[in-house]
Amino acid sequence: MSDAPRTSEHAAAAPDKKGDDAPTTSSADKGQASETSAAPSKRAKEAESSVTTSKQDRAEQAPADQESERPLEMRTSPLPPPPEPTDRRYMPDSFDISLATSYPADIRLVETGPRERRQPMAGFEDTFTDIVDFILRATHRIWDEKAIGYLYEHYRSNTRVIDDAGVVYGRDQVIANSVQMMAAFPDCRFFADEVLWCGDEDQGFWVSHRATMVGHNKGWTKWGPPTGRRVAITCIANTYSHRNQISDEYVVYNTGSLLKQLGYDLMEAAAVERASRPKQETAITPTSGGAQRLHGQGRPTRPYVAFSPDFDESRSLRATLDAIWNWRMLDRVDQAFSGSLRFNGPTDRVIFGLGDYKAYLLGILAMFPDLTYEIEDLQWMGNDDEGYTAAVRWKILGTHLGHGPYGAPTGRPVHMWGMSHLRVQDGLIVEEWTQSNEFEVLVQIAPDPVGTPSGPPVVSPGPEMTGLG
Asked: CA-CA distance, 87 to 208, in Å (whole number)?
């Protein structure tokens, strides 16, 4: 909705050697060969000369764009990633094109036909006015109206989707997972909470879409039969799109909240999920070199950057998050966050104020004392007068060595990742929305089935939501 520039989508063409190794024949030789007797050896030479001449004639008549017929080399990866929006000039410096201006009423979502563009969007359908409108309208078509076939229009055939349960390659699997989720929640609807974007029609658009899915569980899910219960869960999806199609997506759901609303115990559900995976996936001796946060007995790998009251979109946010997570400098919370902070986190955590927020951070650090935090993607929009809204995609690597809400230490390596939306006003973070693969972390540290050797955390794709969710 990501999930980087990324490289050219065309494989390199093999070198054209046509005609390079073919023997050459002069015009005199050709004439002599045509006038020779019918002796067997001379006829053979004549035939060889004729074939060579024919090859040369075809080479001379070949069009200049003969390269299009060259065989393509095999790709080294299923999908080249899109480029990273590292250039500040691609970040919008206002909210002129945003959720507030592109989504004033539901009636706009059902309008059809060409409409006036609000920004250049080469290759996109005429009905979309801007990139925010593209995300909102496409999501409405697919999920609210159940026009699933629009996924063929808006997703490339080799799309890569990374969600909290694993990696999905290919548009067909995206469609299959979407259908399964719709079957479980046939009346589901998506309500947009925030849409951040950057980029342009040449570079492509990066969008971070936070939405709330509402529906009733009237069909089967991977966890069991219909419960009839109403659910409302938050998800954040980062997508890269170019010329009307999405090629890369990172999406994370509030799966823990979903399971709780359906009536499941999270720890029991995590144990069942781990037990349901093939034995060979949990029978391998775990190997882990540990989180690379320190150089030997030295300091954290990145230097500590002191707090500055002069807010800078990229530098301030990166330095603040690095100081808190990698340097364990929780005093930075008092300096960079508003005293009236509201935090909305995984599994429906809602925290007000800095004291409880620091207690939440300490709980994570206590469970994974060697954790290292890394920002994988950062984009923002806004200005000093109106404030800023930023989207951060991050990952945490660590070892479950401490006590906390996830239970007794297991000593297992853990990969946690997620996305955060931060709202900045007057240089301070006043609101944070974060979703992570928290339930998958519980699966990674859940007890192994009886009689099964301990193994490393292995993720397997499930019937999760994909498709502009």
From this structure: 17
**Exposed (0-12), middle (13-18) or buried (19+): which is 156, by Cβ within 10 Å?**
middle
Residues pairing with 109 in the sheet: none
- 80 close to 6: Cβ distance less than 8 angstroms: yes
Helix (H) or strand (E) holding 433: strand 428-436
Residue with tokens 């040369």, as numbered in its chain: 56
Say if residues 201 and 120 touch (Cβ distance below 8 Å): yes
Helix (H) or strand (E) holding 206: strand 204-216
The arithmetic mean of pLDDT across residues 69-91, rounded, is 53
Distance in angstroms (rounded) separating the CA atoms of residues 336 and 188: 38
Which 3-state string (H, E, C) describes 90-142?
Answer: HCCCCCCCCHHHHCCCHHHHHCCCCCCCCCCCCCCCCCCCCHHHHHHHHHHHH
What is the rounded distance in angstroms from the CA atom of residue 219 to the CA atom of residue 382? 42
Mean pLDDT calculated for residue range 416-434: 97
Q: With bands split at pLDDT 50, 70 and 90, how would you rate the model's confidence at 54?
A: very low
* Beta carbons within 8 Å of 315's beta carbon, 6+ residues apart: 305
Going across the sheet that includes 230-242, the strands are: 166-169, 155-163, 245-253, 230-242, 204-216, 189-200
Residue 184: strand, helix, or coil: helix
Query: pTM (2 decimals)?
Result: 0.76
Q: Burial of 367 by CB count in 10 Å (0-12 exposed, 13-18 middle, 19+ buried)?
A: buried
Residue of 131, 103, 102 whose CA lies nearest to 119: 131
Of 56-70, 93-107, 143-157, 424-438, least confident by mean pLDDT is 56-70
Between β-strands 428-436 and 337-345, what pairing exists: parallel, antiparallel or unpaired? parallel
CA distance 124 to 133: 11
The answer to whether the beta carbons of residues 248 and 159 sit under 8 Å apart is yes
**Nearest in space to 348 (alpha carbons), one of 441, 271, 253:** 253
Backbone angles phi, psi at 169, to 5 degrees: -110, 130
Token representation of residue 229? 């219960």
**How high is the pLDDT of residue 309?**
77
Q: What is the dihedral of CA 59, 62, 68, 74, to 10 degrees?
A: -10
Residue carrying the six token digits 């006003």: 425
